[in-house]
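User: Fold this; tokens only.

Assistant: Input:
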Amino acid sequence: MEKYFLLDTDIVSYAGDDRSPYYTSVIQNLKKLSPKDKLYLSDLSIYEYKAGLYLLADQERRRILKGFNEIMQYLNILPLNPDKGGTIFGEIRSEYQKRIGISDNALKKHTIDMILASEAICNDMIFVYNDKIYQKIAEMRSDFKIEKWTG
């Protein structure tokens, strides 16, 4: 049975950077996948990833971008689904704010995380993560399937 995985931005970052402390763990998990399994990266993650590159010095940016381009050969791009995903995002955001009790302003830093979780749910994908927020979302939503590949 094939599985569909949506990778968080940082997972792709680790996979493309052999200097990352999580590189080996992520690569080992990638090697365990079946040839039928499909890997995806949200188009939103590409924006997030590339924005982060500009915080780096030129030489480091080139090195990281080379690794990113290599890993992208194995990934499919998942476009956002604003109708279904947008509804799920609204549900997650509202429930998360109620449960955690944080302000609207503090909640903004998790917007991309919640959109990615919404996309995994609406496309029935397993979300591969490293950030703790995804565990909290999985506790709220039984339809949010997650795997942690960083140890």
